[in-house]
Design a protein that fits this description.
The chain contains 8 helices and 11 strands. By secondary structure, it is α/β, with parallel strands linked by helices. Strand 8, helix 7 and strand 9 form a beta-alpha-beta unit.
Length: about 260
Amino acid sequence: IGRLLLEVTGARGVYDRSDAATRRREGLEVRSEVLVGETAPDVIEIVEDGVKYGVDVRVGHKTGFYIDQRESRLSAQRAAEEFRRRHGRGLRALNCFCYTGGFSLALLKGGAEEVVSVDSSEEALAMARANAERNGFTNRAEWLCEDVFTCLRRLRDAGEKFDLVILDPPKFASSHYHVDRAARAYKDINLNGLKLLGPGGELFTFSCSGAIDVDLFQKIVAGAVIDSGVTAWATGRFGAGEDHPLLMTCPEGEYLKGLRLAVRP
């Protein structure tokens, strides 16, 4: 397979990231190494919809970059462009669980005036800052190394307001045993995210937990809307890209789901 990939894609090397926790549970060998070809450099630069990203395929989460969110990042970029056309200014956005800055840079590419990005990993934020420099976005980006739950409350209490809030957390429920705890966590971040939106603001909210199905996720977010006291309309839905097809006999494969909410005065 490795040799065929080199032939078909023209790549110089294939790196094998067979290191997911599920392999250990299934008793399979865990590997993280060059499968064939050249050794991977420390950072590989990719370009997605006009934005440059540095990717560490060896130690980064998943493959070092969340490819499944490609179409959602493009939606964020277009939302920033549309906001600028309508209002004559760039939007102010908050990106929570920003990792290496995927959504943040997409928004800045779309003309966002300011993007505040939060993550608890300084290592991820270092790559995010480098990515901002790659694209010349440093003067409009703020990076906060902070627990998102704490940060949302701090910003809420300080009276901060944003035109767009993005909530793209890691997997809160690794199995059905953790669904109740995960539901409380999703409710918490969505409630505070909604409270940070100004009139006419938008919320992009996601779950990548396979144990939280689409119906349950929507109910959790609806509960947050009710408790926040705002009027919100679901104007769009998100999911993994077309290169992540869903096997109909494995509904858990629809792990990534998201909602686009518009808050009305």
